[in-house]
Design brief:
Blueprint: H1 4-20, H2 23-57
Helix pairs in contact: 1-2
Amino acid sequence: MAGEKDKAKGVVKETVGKATGNERIEAEGKADRAKGEVKGAAHDVKESAKGVRDSIKND
């Protein structure tokens, strides 16, 4: 779920920007989407690290 809000907001802004010809809003949407992707990837790495830590701890 990490970053989903930013990705959704980005898609909306990007769509509105394209529909209205507003390049600034479209660019903001792309940036928000990218921010959401990064947050999601960071969350995945964090969860993987927890899994590794837990498996080492249980050995």
